[in-house]
Amino acid sequence: MSRPPAPARVSQRKLQLILNHAARVFSEKGYEGASIRDISRASGVSLAGMYYYVESKQKLLYLIQLNTFKTVLERLQKRIEGVADPVERLRILTHNHLEYFLRHPVEMKVLSHEDEALEGEYRKEVMGIKRRYYEVALGIFYDLRRAGLARRMNARVAVLSLFGMMNWIYTWHRPGLDPQAEALAEGMVSMFLHGVIGASNGNHRLGGSKASGSKSRLRPRPRPVQYAGTQGGLSIS
Predict the structure, then answer these.
(1) What angle do CA 71, 45, 68 make, to 5 degrees?
(2) CA 109 to the chain's CA centroid
(3) Which of 3, 20, 2, 24 is nearest to 12 (CA)?
(4) Which of its termini does the chain have fewer beta carbons within 10 Å around, N or C?
C-alpha cells in the first residue's frame, strides 16, 4: 500500500491551490475589488479553510509576489553560475524572465498592476528580493560596458528599459502567433544591444535625416524577432 501524503505536503498543495485562484481573482477584479469570499468561491475552499492558511488578503498578495520573485531570482542565479560571458548572462536573464512569465501570465498581471498594493513589512521584504534581482541585471550591464559591448549611458535607464520590454508580455503575447521564450529572448537581447535599425540603415539619424559621411558602427547580426504590443514595467528598484 502506498503511504498517504504527508500533512505538510497536503497543506502546501492546498495553499498553492489558494494562491493560484487568488492570483486569477486579483487579475480579473483587481486587488481592491476582490474579496476573500471571491477567492473562497473560486478555489472551493471554505472561508474557515481560507483563514486557516492566510489571515488576510494582504497575506495572499504578499505570498504571490514573494513566491514569484524568489522563484525567478533563484532560477536565474543557478543558471548564470559559472557563466563568464556577459552577453550569455544577458541571454540567460532574459530567457529566464520570459520563460517564467509566459508560463504564469496571471501572476505577471498581478505583479504589474498591484505593485503598490503591498504594505508594511510585506512590502519591505518583497522589495528586498526585487532589489537583488535588479542588482543582478545591473551587474550584467556593467560587465557588458567593461567589455566594450554597451554604450556609456545611464545604467539604471538601460536596465529598466530592458525590464520594460519584458514585463508586460502578457498583454500581447499569443502562443500560436508570437515566438516562444528562447526566440523571444534572442530578439530582445539583440534589440537591447544593437537597437532595431539594421546595419544598412546605420547612417540614418533618428527622425530619418542622414548623417552625411558617417559610417555605421553596427555589426551585421541576425534579423531580430518581430512583434508589437504594449510595453510597461514592474517597479523593481
Answers:
(1) 10
(2) 10
(3) 20
(4) N
- Are 129 and 66 contacting, i.e. CB atoms less than 8 angstroms apart? yes
Rounded (5°) CA angle 139-123-132: 15
pTM over 0.85: no
Q: Name the nearest CA neighbour of 86 among 142, 135, 130, 134.
A: 142
DSSP-assigned beta bridge partners for residue 204: 210
Q: Which residues touch 53 (CB under 8 Å, ≥6 apart)?
A: 11, 14, 15, 18, 45
* Cβ(204)–Cβ(197) below 8 Å: yes
Helix pair angle (120-146, 155-166), 10° resolution:
110
How many Cα atoms within 13 Å fall on the side-chain side of residue 78? 7
pLDDT, tens digit (0-9, with 9 covering 90-100), for 104-158:
999 999 998 898 999 999 999 999 999 999 999 999 999 999 999 998 889 999 9
Q: pLDDT of 8-66, one tens digit each?
A: 676 889 999 999 999 999 999 999 999 999 999 999 999 999 999 999 999 999 999 99
List Cβ neighbours of 218 (8 Å cut-off, separation of 6 or more): 194, 195, 197, 198, 199, 202
* Widest Cα–Cα separation across the chain: 81
